[in-house]
Amino acid sequence: MTIQTATLPTKQINQGNFLDTPQLASGITRFWLIRHALVEQNARMSLYGTLDVPLCPDSLIAQRPMYEALAARLPKKAQWLVSPLSRTRKTAEAIQDAGYGPSALTVEPALIEQNLGEWQGMPHGELPQHLHLAAHPFWSVAATECPPKGESMIDVCARVGRGLDRLAETYAGQDVVAVSHGGAIRAALAHALRIHAETALHFSIQNISLTILERLEEGWRVVTVNELPGI
């Protein structure tokens, strides 16, 4: 008697997309998203949004070991992107100076922080009287709140999502290090996971933390979120 065995169609065998080892495969379109370093204390007292505020010089010195760990963690043959704001460029330069080595920095407007419009520069304590909706528990405003002459987090998610899809085509099969902002990285997660902006705001994205996204044929994959270098 002959026993026949069923053979699964090749399309159903999908071993290649499992992350089974610490080493990430090469040839994957991969974004290494880094939130900029801590801004200086006076700037933190207000809503700074897209204002071009400086970094805290003391934290750059105190957190040098974290920059060194991040420099060692990042892929050496990567494209580097920064937002139009100097705090992302200065953070990228600090990482490169900490052992990564020099690499050209390309400005990508799609990765800028949420524009808070007329509320930018306002002390945090004055904001509640201007809100039409209750603030998000982990963000200054609700995801659907649109500041006068600014943009809502819904808008940010749309902007960042379009930008990521475009960049994934431009840098197909390459590693991209992008130094960006807390709101923009949350928007990137919303796009990758297909979740509402209000939900994405529950992610913690700390200064100089690393979030890794991959663009595969099947869609976006989240590899890590808010990874703190050296910890």
From TrEMBL:
One of its GO terms (molecular function) is phosphatase activity. It comes from the Bacteria. InterPro entries: His_Pase_superF_clade-1, His_PPase_superfam, PGM_Phosphatase. One of its GO terms (cellular component) is cytoplasm. This is Alpha-ribazole-5'-phosphate phosphatase. The lineage of its organism: Bacteria, Pseudomonadati, Pseudomonadota, Alphaproteobacteria, Acetobacterales.
